[in-house]
Amino acid sequence: MLKAGVLGAGHLGKIHLKLLQQSERYELVGFYDPSIENAKKVSEEFGYHSFNSVEELIASVDVVDIVTPTLSHFECAKMAIDKGCHIFIEKPITNTVLEAEAIRTLASQKHIRGQVGHVERFNPAFTAVKEMIGTPMFIETHRLAEFNPRGTDVPVVLDLMIHDIDIILSVVQSPVKNVHASGVSVISETPDIANARIEFENGCVANLTASRISMKNMRKSRFFQRDAYISVDFLDKKSEVVRMKDAPESPDEFAMILQNAEGVRKQIYFDNPEVTPNNAILDELESFADAIENDTTPVVSLEQGTNALRVAQQIIDCFDKEN
């Protein structure tokens, strides 16, 4: 079993602690939280060992699970890598692209495995259809959340939209060509609502909308490709695939047939793939154990986490040009 320790015992950190303790792939050694009061409370309530410093925790584990505020990701990751520990970092990977590149380089030099917590990659609604997503040419995403003060220290792009950026980059096998975006600050010092258009060199276009002051929660993505439309509801864990195939000469009387201006007839087929319930955070943590033990590339590598942050930063830069 891999010895694991968690840096940060906030809302998400406590979830990671619980799941690492449950996992058969890890031995949870303990955690460190800079708040003495919070560390004492978490330790007394759940029985986890509380370390007195980051250095003390790192010296006791094989894997460091970084669930701290984004501003501290770089320093925590650097310290862990320097001591030979593998790192799991919650998204976004770091606060800046330069920091992310530095972490990537250092991890490579030290032969350290690293994974970024883009948990939607493990959402069962997405995993049920990801192999069916071939070459999408238009993608539309909506990620809306009711207001929550937690996370408003960063733009909504880094808080919410980056999930969809990562998903899109994982299915579009083409470099980004152009990014256009606009954002509006309503209640926070940084944009609470944002819309972005990402154009890829292969002609694919992705239109992303994110809001953290919505009246309802929504996490939906739609992928359009030749003869197919794929819908993923990340919130309700549902997927739908609509395919078009050449219509038979004698279709069933209930068949849905479309005919274009050239007289080509297509039959529409609807499919709702089986979505198997899972705990996505546990799955991502255990997939990282697989990568470490088998010496393979993690599902969400440091490089992929850096690429998602780079596009997110391009979007944020568009906001600065507006002002």
Automatic annotation (TrEMBL):
Residues 3-118 form the Gfo/Idh/MocA-like oxidoreductase N-terminal domain. This is Gfo/Idh/MocA family protein. It comes from Pseudotenacibaculum haliotis. It comes from the Bacteria. Pfam families: GFO_IDH_MocA (PF01408), GFO_IDH_MocA_C3 (PF22725). Residues 155-216 form the GFO/IDH/MocA-like oxidoreductase domain. InterPro entries: Gfo/Idh/MocA-like_OxRdtase_N (IPR000683), Gfo/Idh/MocA_Oxidoreductases (IPR051450), GFO_IDH_MocA-like_dom (IPR055170), NAD(P)-bd_dom_sf (IPR036291).
